[in-house]
């Protein structure tokens, strides 16, 4: 899995590419938890390059969101394809995690 990052002021944008499954989710979890542990508490995940999410991937996102919240930060996601958004909707994750249409909406939300 390729994981690109970009900063937008205090916001860290993490952009994984490919599948987010039991094989690749540990890599994303490690990258996110390292950043959170280092004090980065405003994070958004760009789902534009993700074409599949398993329950293992959902768990990683939930762990990162909880750690960010515990640090009084913000965790969000954006740019989901309709198929990925459906996975989040069916799993109930849309009710517990913030999802925006694109990066501009994340930045506008503050």
From TrEMBL:
Transmembrane segments: none annotated. One of its GO terms (molecular function) is anti-sigma factor antagonist activity. It holds the Pfam family STAS. InterPro entries: Anti-sigma_ant, STAS_dom, STAS_dom_sf. This is Anti-sigma factor antagonist. Belongs to the anti-sigma-factor antagonist family. It comes from the Bacteria. Residues 1-110 form the STAS domain. PROSITE patterns: STAS (PS50801).
